[in-house]
Amino acid sequence: MTTTIRFYKPYGVLTKFTDAEERPTLADYIHLPAIYPAGRLDLDSEGLLILTDHNALKTRLTEPRYAHPRTYWAQVEHIPDEQALQQLREGVVIQDYTTRPAQVSLIDEPADLPPRDPPIRYRKSTPTAFVQITLTEGRNRQVRRMTAAVGHPTLRLIRVAVGPITLESLSPGEWQPLTPTQQRDLLKSVGLIK
After folding, report:
1. What is the set of domains in the chain, with CATH numbers?
2. Cα 152 to Cα 15, 77, 131, 136, distances in angstroms
3. pLDDT above 80 for 46
4. Cα angle 121-126-130, degrees, rounded to a multiple of 5
5. What is the rounded end-to-end Cα distance, in angstroms, of the chain?
6. Residue 152 above 90 pLDDT?
7. Which tens digit of pLDDT belongs to each residue from 81-99?
8. How far apart are CA 186 and CA 60, in angstroms?
C-alpha cells in the first residue's frame, strides 16, 4: 500500500525535510515516514506539492520526458497584452533554451486566494494581473523567468494543480491523503494504470 498526499506549501517553506540553516521545511507540517516530494516549489512560491512513497509515480511526475502538466497562477506586474500572452503560449527564450508551448490565459484575481504572509509589495502606480499558466516542463524558476522575459515580472506564484490533483479545499500548511479516486486519476494521468 502506497501513501500519496497533497500539501499546500506556504510561502517561505523549503521543499525538503531538513535545513542546516533551520529555515521552515516540510517537517514542520508533515510527520509521515518515507514520503518524499514529487517535484519542488521554490522558497518564495506557494501551492500544491504531491508527496509520495511511490517511486514510479515520483519519477513520472518529475522527469521532463513525461511532460506532466502543472498549472500556476502568477500575479504579475502590469497587465499583459495579447502579444505577451501569445509569446508565453508559443515559448520564450530563457538562458540557453526555448520553453515548450504552454496554455496561458489572463484570469480574474481568484476570489478564494488566501493572503500571503508577508504580502507582496504594493505600488499604487503599478497595476497587477493574474495569469494562469499550464506547463509540461518544470525547469528552475521557469514561470518567473518566462513572465520576466515578456516584460511582466512575477510578484506571487501559486501552483494550483498537478495533472488532475488540485489545491481545492486546502489552506496553506494543510495536507490530505489522496482519496482512492484522486489516486486512481493521478496514476492514470501519468500512464501507470489504464
Report:
1. 1-67+163-194 (3.30.70.580), 69-162 (3.30.70.1560)
2. 26, 5, 10, 21
3. yes
4. 80
5. 19
6. yes
7. 999 999 999 999 988 889 9
8. 10
Measured CA angle at 93 (ends 163, 151), to 5 deg: 90
The answer to whether 98 and 143 have CB atoms below 8 angstroms apart is no
% of the chain beyond a pLDDT of 70: 100
- Nearest CA to 9 out of 34, 44, 35, 33 is that of 44
d(C-alpha 11, C-alpha 116), whole Å: 7
* Per-residue cell: 79: 497587465
Give this prediction's pTM. Answer: 0.93
Residues assigned a catalytic role: 42
